[in-house]
Amino acid sequence: MYQFRPSLTLVGAGKMGFALLHGWLDRDLAGPETVVLEPAPSGEAKAFCAARGARLNPPGEPVAPRTLVLAIKPQMLDQLAPILEPLAAPDTLVVSILAGKRVADLSARLPRTQAFVRAMPNTPAAIGRGVTGAFATAGVSAEQRACADVLLRAVGGVEWLDDEALIDAVTGVSGSGPAYVFYLAEALAEAGRAAGLPADLSARLARATVEGASALMSQSESVTPGQLRENVTSPGGTTAAALEVLMGKDGLKALMTRAVAAATRRAEELSG
Hints:
- It contains 11 helices and 8 strands.
- The chain is α/β, with parallel strands linked by helices.
C-alpha cells in the first residue's frame, strides 16, 4: 500500500469535502499539516478540524501543497481562481471533484501544473461506502496517481477511466444513482400504500427491504445481481408475477436506460 502523510490542502469543506476529510483523518492519511480552506465553514467542520488537528483557514498566505483537492461548488471556480492559482505549483497534483468542470477548464485557470485527476464520487462517501470514477491526465506520475487513489479510496471504491468523456456516464450511473435507489424505496412504499398497507408500515417495509437487499448484494460479490434476482424468483410465484411487469418492454430496464441517458446528457451540457 502507498504509505504517506502528504502535504495536503483541501479547498471546500461542504458535504463531499467534509466526507473526504473525515475519511483521510480516520485512516491517518492526513495530519496536522493538512490545510482546509473554506470561506463559510459549518459548526461541525470547525469542531472536527479543531478536534483532529487540521488547520482550518490558517492565517497568512497558504503555500502550494504537493496535493491540492478541489471540493468547491463548480460555479465558484472562476471566482476563486485567483486564490487557487498560487496553490497549484508545477509539481502539485490537483484532484478535482467539481462536477461539470473538465480538465481543460481546470488547466486554463491553474496553468502552472500539468497533473490533474478529475473525480466523480457519490453521496454514500459520507459513510465510507461511496464509489468514485476517476481520470488522470498524462502529466500525473505513477506516484501521484497512487496518492490520488489512496485519498479517494478513503471514502469507498475507485474505478479508473481511460477517457475523461466517460466521467459524464459515471455521473449518470453512480453520481446520480443514489437518488434512483432512494426513489425506488419511495415508489415501493407508495405502491404498498396503494395495495392497502398503512403508509408508515409500508414506508418501513420498503426501506428495510432496500437496505437488506443492498447489504445482501454487497456480501455476495461473486454473485451477479441477475443471479441474486433469480435466486428469489420461484416460477409462477408472486415475485415472478411482479417481474413480468418490471421486465416488460417498457419496464424498469428501459426506463433506467432513459434516465441514465438523460443524466449523462445533462452532465455533457454542464461540462460543455
